[in-house]
Write a structure and sequence with these properties.
The protein is of the alpha+beta class and 319 residues long. It contains eight helices and twelve strands.
């Protein structure tokens, strides 16, 4: 029987706590108001007053982005698990097996040393996929997220050919859906049920962002390596800390994949090789194969329970 190992925690780091809508929006609002210049512990800047709320109907629209800190990403090898970001994405969206929207690769760094790199949809501002779709099925929503309307998608796969990042997937066969999915209220922001003959991809958990939650991959990352950013407010959070987004990018030499193509991706990377969790630059570790949602035993009921747990985390000592 495999013994589960807990993730090593560097000094000052605490175990992941689920992030509720109030905690996320309250933390972002506080950071923006204070003009944060560095990383701020989230718990220290959350108002207890219920009237302190963020309104989606006033002010400029949020513009979502992501930042992945490769200093923290070590493929979940130190806890002897498959990449938890991938498994969380699979479970959240009931992603068809072999069609992962998020993948973790071991790549060669500038000095020839390997490191892990999660790759998902880059949410490009100048997205080639939106330009070639003959029926307008792939588009930007008002918050900058690239979505696919499967009611329109004709499966021509021109968007797949145009995407320079290789992050789109095509359902050649009839994908398995969880029981009850046929009754789901389909939306491009949460595309369920999955359909044969259509293209799918990461949609930055647009449905979770609306509810004030970070994406499933960020929530599932035990190393706090993935953050959701609001470019309008210039703040970001990994579920534990809130920090000024632009300052964090500048201070840590952030980069984007294939910037020379002019796609203006909204996913930034902080250079690193998992060193904050003991991954040595010469390590050559291979992550475990992530489980599908079926292997995780995920159902719509269990997903709903998971969401409720995120909204109402247990307090310390609660049974």
């Amino acid at each position: 029987m495999e013994t589960e190992r807990t993730s090593p925690q560097p000094a000052g780091k605490s175990p992941r706590q689920p992030l509720s809508r109030r905690r996320l929006l309250g933390g972002i609002g506080a950071a923006a108001a204070l003009g944060a210049t560095g990383v701020i512990p989230l718990a220290n800047h959350v108002s207890a007053e219920p009237e302190v709320k963020a309104s989606a109907s006033t002010g400029p629209k949020r513009q979502w982005a992501m930042v992945i800190d490769l200093r923290k990403c070590e493929g979940c090898t130190t806890i002897d698990k498959a990449p938890q970001c991938v498994e969380a994405c699979n479970a959240e969206h009931f992603v068809p097996p072999g069609q992962e929207w998020l993948q973790v690769f071991e790549v060669e760094g500038p000095g020839g040393h390997p490191h892990f790199l999660p790759r998902l949809c880059m949410q490009c501002e100048n997205a080639p996929c939106t330009k070639v779709c003959p029926v307008g099925a792939t588009y930007h929503n008002e918050e900058g997220i690239v979505l696919i309307n499967h009611d329109r998608c004709i499966g021509c796969r021109m968007c797949m050919a145009a995407c320079p990042y290789g992050v789109r997937r095509f359902n050649w066969g009839e994908p398995e859906n969880p029981p009850g999915a046929a009754l789901a209220n389909y939306s491009p922001e949460y595309p369920l049920p999955h359909r044969k003959g259509t293209v799918e991809k990461c949609m930055l958990c647009a449905h979770r962002a609306k509810d004030g939650k970070i994406p499933a991959c960020a929530s599932g990352c035990p190393m706090f390596a993935i953050s959701l950013a609001d470019m309008t407010e210039d703040v970001a959070t990994n579920g534990k800390d809130v920090f000024k987004f632009s300052r964090f990018l500048a201070d840590n030499s952030a980069y984007r994949l294939k910037e020379d193509l002019g796609t203006k991706p909204r996913v930034w990377y902080i250079p690193g090789h998992g060193q904050e969790y003991g991954h040595h630059v010469d390590d050559n570790l291979i992550p475990k194969e992530p489980r599908s949602w079926q292997e995780q035993g995920m159902t719509l009921d269990k997903l709903e329970e998971k969401h409720k747990a995120e909204e109402h985390p247990q307090t310390e000592g609660a049974k």
